[in-house]
Amino acid sequence: MPRKAPLKVFTGIGTSYLTEQICSQLNIELGKSSCPYFSDGEFEPCYEETIRGSYVFIVQSTFPPSDNLWELLLMIDAAKRASAYKVIAVIPYFGYARQDRKDKPRVSIGAKLVADVLSKAGIDRIITVDLHADQIQGFFDVPVDHLYASSLFVPYIKEMNLPNVVIASPDVGGTKRANTYAKLLETDLVICHKTRSKANIIGDMTVIGDVKGKDVIIVDDIIDTAGTITTAANLFIEKGANSVRAFATHPVLSGPAFERIENSALEAIYFTNTIPLKKESEKIKILSIAPLLADVIDKVYYYKSISSFYIQ
To answer: Exposed/middle/buried for 6, CB within 10 Å: 0-12, 13-18, 19+?
Structure first.
């Protein structure tokens, strides 16, 4: 019987904190690599150990700056040129996912472009968490393991033992996600309907459903400026909710996000660590996604089923 190709896990600079946790879960050493910079800012990722004939998993979220995406591409190219058997990109946060369609004239479809570039670089597989739009999986011509943070969040919510839970979607677009949580937790569902005057600016918001006397849990995939989530939380309290908490996968948290969260009616907001947190906040709690990603990497490597992770 032929020898199984070795399993090796490497990290990009931006996601080293998460990759170290993944390797700890897998009980393996983090692969040796470096990324020297030239004086003009150009960089050159390099593997510091042989990867010939190996299963190479490269962990890197592609949040800004764009160097994170470019570093991932260079690492993929280097692995292919070093004769790796398989190159799997583990992208906990897939940047540009909000650019999944033409929503106005003369704009790019950034998510498709990124998918094309990754494929051209030579990936054999993608592992990612909570894509902003499910259809992005179809932008790739290689297998995509699209995982959901609900497999981490739902058990945690159950352990909180809140007396009158209701699940809320902060907008109509997140209704499918929120409905899944509501079914798994056997609770009611409420929806916020909002209008935007322009990107990141909310025009008006109304609540569809009853939150009076309820412990509201808002679920979302990305929180950027936190305008929607905090407006929704404040509105729920005005409508008579007992408490409001939020669970979201990716803590993008740009601009006034931290200030809005601190000044909002939110009791707490729970994220995974797909993106490093820019600063600490008493209201922000982090649940590590590393055990989930480590389990999936192990199952992919040993050709085991991962269907149990698709609970959304």
So the answer is: middle
Are 292 and 151 spatial neighbours (Cβ–Cβ below 8 Å)?
yes
pLDDT tens digits, 177-236:
999 999 999 999 999 887 655 555 556 778 888 899 999 999 999 999 999 999 999 999
Tokens of 106: 């003369």
- Active-site residues: which are they? 194
Contact 192, 235 (CB under 8 A): yes
Paired strand residues for 10:
58
Distance of alpha carbon 147 from alpha carbon 142, whole angstroms: 16
Is the model's pTM score more than 0.85? yes
> Omega of the bond prior to 65 within 30 degrees of 0, cis?
yes
Q: What is the pLDDT of residue 61?
A: 98
Q: Quote the tokens at residue 213.
A: 């006397």
The interaxial angle of helices 175-185 and 150-160, nearest 10 deg, is 50
- The token pair that represents 170 in the structure block: 């902060």
Contacts of 303 (CB under 8 A, 6+ apart): none
Longest dimension (CA), the chain: 67
Give the H/E segment covering residue 190: strand 188-198
- In terms of phi and psi (left: phi > 0; alpha: psi -120 to 50; beta: otherwise), the region of 83 is left
- Kindly indicate the confidence band of residue 158, based on its pLDDT and cuts at 50, 70 and 90: very high
Neighbours of 14 (CB within 10 A): 22
* Beta-sheet pairing, 201-208 with 188-198: antiparallel
Can you tell me the distance from the alpha carbon of 300 to that of 240, in angstroms, rounded to the nearest whole number? Answer: 47
pLDDT tens digits for range 98-127: 999 998 899 999 999 999 999 999 999 999
